[in-house]
Design brief:
alpha/beta; 3-stranded parallel β-sheet; globular
């Protein structure tokens, strides 16, 4: 039986070791399931306390993806079996996934993420949590949750709201696929290498003079990546997000009705913007309101509070939102014709939105209170 996630340690000349986590379901584009999340959390906690481990690397098996998101089929089946109720499956998956993301954000030791190929949804949650985030000429990075009746979770409430201008709102509404340059512009990535430079990178990691000082190790890894990036064979593409930032800000300006009108009436010759427009207009109208509510969160909200906010909404989406219908249309029946609860954004009721935005737990009972 193949392991869904593989853990290895690599020796280095300094005597320290590097912990390597490889997501290993290539045929499913390394999508995260609950067992993977549990195994990763356990191993990462052990390595965090292990003085011999100086650095951790996250990568994905195969050449297509680092991680295409969460494997949400189990949540779908549990939610369909218990309509309008919060299921243990949804609660467990999102709680443990967010705990894992939070652990990586707060890890202390350097965490290098090899963000080659597809990095979407839950995969972006992992990547955004790394201290050193490498993108390549093959990177395709997106938060496509609007198409399954969800919203950009896994910390999106934190990192999307810190992007230039209205970029975060644009990404949440349109599921736009970022390239490497876009990722660097929005700070999702912070280093750029060629996809075929992974092995030289691993070889170079073994030569770093790692020690017990976390700050030293962070600086050493940064210097190594800068040196490799300066000599990379890959050419960084143009960033449409940076190039068209003023237009994106205008497109996303105003209240939800304004943005909906501006996006629906947009006439453009740009293929990437046409795709973004099409995805937004075919996405869940309920999700539009969630993405909007998320974009208006206070930037001073702590990372822990962002994850707490997200957990309530994510489980609500499964019990009385559009999540089940979105997953059915995209992943189960694959007919790609979701019948959303509301046909248009104009029809969405305030009551339905408030219900989704209201935490199902009393404050003292929240599953993430310990973060």
């Amino acid at each position: 039986m193949t392991q869904d996630v593989i853990f290895q340690t690599l020796g280095t000349l300094s005597g320290k070791s590097i912990g390597v986590v490889t997501l290993n379901i290539e045929k499913a584009l390394n999508a995260l399931n609950l067992d993977m999340v549990k195994a990763m959390t356990e191993q990462l906690l052990a390595w965090q306390q292990d003085a011999s481990i100086a650095c951790v690397v996250l990568d994905g098996a195969g050449e297509k993806a680092f991680c295409a998101g969460g494997d949400v089929r189990a949540i779908y089946h549990a939610s369909v079996a218990m309509p309008n109720q919060m299921t243990q499956a949804a609660c467990d998956f999102f709680t443990l996934e967010y705990q894992l993301d939070y652990l990586l954000h707060q890890y202390g030791k350097p965490v290098l993420v090899w963000g080659d190929g597809i990095v979407m949804g839950g995969g972006l949650g992992l990547m955004a949590a790394g201290s050193h985030r490498v993108v390549t000429e093959r990177s395709r990075i997106a938060m496509p949750e609007i198409s399954i009746g969800l919203y950009p979770d896994v910390g999106g409430s934190y990192f999307l709201n810190r992007m230039p201008g209205k970029t975060g709102l644009f990404l949440g509404l349109t599921a736009y696929n970022m390239n490497a340059a876009d990722a660097l512009y929005t700070a999702i990535g912070n280093h750029f290498l060629a996809s075929d430079e992974k092995e030289p990178l691993f070889d170079a990691l073994a030569d770093v003079q790692w020690n017990d000082d976390k700050n030293h190790n962070h600086q050493s890894l940064t210097q190594l990546l800068i040196r490799l990036q300066d000599n990379t064979s890959a050419k960084l593409p143009e960033s449409p997000l940076e190039q068209f930032q003023p237009q994106i800000d205008l497109l996303m300006a105003g209240e939800i009705e304004d943005v909906h009108h501006q996006l629906s009436s947009l006439s453009t010759e740009l293929p990437w913007l046409q795709r973004a427009q099409k995805t937004a207009m075919s996405g869940s109208p309920l999700s539009w309101f969630l993405v909007f509510a998320q974009s208006q969160l206070d930037q001073d909200m702590s990372l822990a509070d962002c994850f707490k906010w997200e957990l309530g909404i994510s489980v609500n989406c499964c019990s009385h939102g559009d999540f089940c219908e979105g997953v059915r249309a995209l992943l189960i029946d694959k007919d790609r014709t979701p019948q959303w609860r509301f046909a248009t954004a104009e029809e969405v009721t305030e009551e339905a939105v408030v219900k989704l935005l209201t935490s199902p737990w009393l404050p003292e009972e929240h599953p993430l209170n310990h973060l």
